[in-house]
Amino acid sequence: MQPRATLALKAMIIVMLALLLVAQIFMIPGVAASTAERNPEVAFLEIPGVVGAVLFLVLIEIVLVCVFQLLGLVRSDRIFSSDAFRYVDVIAITMLASALLIAVSYGVVFAARAANPGITILALLGVTVSIALALLVRVMRGLLRKALQLEQDLSEVV
Predict the structure, then answer these.
(1) What are the DSSP E strand ranges found in 1-157?
(2) How many angstroms separate the CA atoms of 107 and 113, rounded?
(3) Angle at the Cα of 98 from the Cα atoms of 44 and 83, rounded to 5 degrees
(4) How many other C-beta atoms can be found within 10 angstroms of the C-beta atom of residue 114?
(5) CB burial class (10 A; 0-12, 13-18, 19+) of residue 31?
(6) 142-157, pLDDT tens digit by residue?
(7) What span, in angstroms and rounded, lies between the C-alpha atoms of 51 and 55?
(8) What is the pLDDT of residues 110-129, one digit of tens each?
(9) Which of 45, 72, 91, 149 is the most buried (most CB within 10 A)?
(10) Percentage of the residues of the chain whose pLDDT score is greater than 70
């Protein structure tokens, strides 16, 4: 099933994972430090901000690794197996965890009186998108289950 496309996607996922690691190690701490320096009134949020941002990128990395594994199942023509459900479930849980992380992060910023309308809208957008993606993955899981059942029924007939 589309061996070149799955190979290209796997290569892109590897590139994205490498870029996310660079962001976690070099960019996030640097941006947090310069932001704390420019805005001393919220400098106490530097460490929680770094932790939250790094955790958020870890959640993205988890999803990418699961998609990578699903692409391996597609490539080996085993996507309609029970193995796929484990990765799909992890993706859905990770989406919900990201919604929770965004909400908690916004709560910290709000409690510190550092929230503004732009941050509020971004937080609402992040939570909404995360929950919507979790629900979409849940629907896709149902379709995968149905396809697996149909494939099993068809194999019994043939």
Answers:
(1) none
(2) 10
(3) 145
(4) 15
(5) middle
(6) 999 998 888 888 878 7
(7) 6
(8) 999 999 999 999 999 999 99
(9) 91
(10) 99
For residue 72, count CB atoms less than 10 angstroms from its CB and return exposed for 0-12, middle for 13-18, buried for 19 or more. middle
CA–CA distances in Å: residue 88 to residues 30, 31, 62, 101, 147: 34, 33, 11, 20, 14
In degrees, rounded to 5, the angle at the alpha carbon of residue 3 between the alpha carbons of residues 85 and 148 is 30
- Assigned token pair, 114: 């550092």
For 72, phi and psi rounded to 5 degrees?
-65, -40
**How far apart, in whole angstroms, are the C-alpha atoms of residue 37 and residue 134?**
37
Asked if pLDDT for residue 1 goes beyond 70, the answer is: no
State the distance between the two ends of the chain, measured CA to CA, in whole angstroms. 21
User: How far is residue 124's CA from residue 121's CA, in Å, rounded to a whole number?
Assistant: 5
Query: What is the Cα–Cα distance from 63 to 91, expressed in whole angstroms?
Result: 5
> Mean pLDDT over residues 5-34, rounded?
96
